[in-house]
Amino acid sequence: MSKPEIIPIDPIEASTILDRDQNARLIDVRSKVEFEYVGHPLGAIHIPWKEFPNWNENPNFVASVDTALAKDGTPTKDRALLMLCRSGVRSLHAGEALLRSGYTRVYNIEGGFEGERDAQQHRGNINGWRFHGLPWEQG
């Protein structure tokens, strides 16, 4: 049996999975400030991978995911978990931690919430959750 790997998907694919699989969960791993003030996908579970001011990895990340999933009644390790950050890097590392802890269906949303930088170093003009007009909110 092969070892589970993170599955890269774009925001449109992520939205489709969330629409079709009632047990799938989107986990936003950005900082509290990013989540609240920049915005976040509707229904996202917020569990930071790194937090301001020191930006160290959250040592309780996996336990926090376990707790959040247990609260909604489906704590299985084989449910679809869709990981999201600003551009897809922190979410990749957070997803790897989940795979190491026994989760088997981990997706990384490439382009993240804000997307990659364009030639002018601005985000939101190439890809990402908001670029595609998917549902989100601030606050």
Describe the 3D structure.
- The structure is a single chain.
- By secondary structure, the chain is α/β, with parallel strands linked by helices.
- It has helices spanning 11-20, 32-38, 61-71, 90-100; strands at residues 7-9, 25-28, 40-41, 45-46, 80-84, 105-109, 136-137.
- The protein has a single domain, classed as Rhodanese-like domain (Oxidized Rhodanese, domain 1, 3-Layer(aba) Sandwich).
- The chain has 4 helices and 7 strands; from the N terminus they run βαβαββαβαββ.
- The protein has a 5-stranded parallel sheet with strand order 1-6-5-2-4.
- The longest helix is centred in the middle third of the chain and has 11 residues, at 61-71.
CATH-defined superfamily: Rhodanese-like domain
E-strand count:
7
End-to-end distance: 43 Å
Approximate helicity band: 25-40%
Radius of gyration from CA coordinates: 14 Å
What's the story with the biggest beta sheet?
A: 5 strands, parallel
Please name the CATH topology: Oxidized Rhodanese, domain 1
Structural class, by secondary structure, is alpha/beta
Mean pLDDT: 93
Note the overall shape: globular
CATH structural class: Alpha Beta
CATH architectural name: 3-Layer(aba) Sandwich
Outline the low-pLDDT stretches. none
Give the helices and strands as they follow along the chain: EHEHEEHEHEE
Our estimate of the beta-strand percent is 15-25%
* Count of separate structural domains: 1
Count the DSSP helices: 4
Q: Going across the biggest sheet, name each strand in turn.
A: 1-6-5-2-4
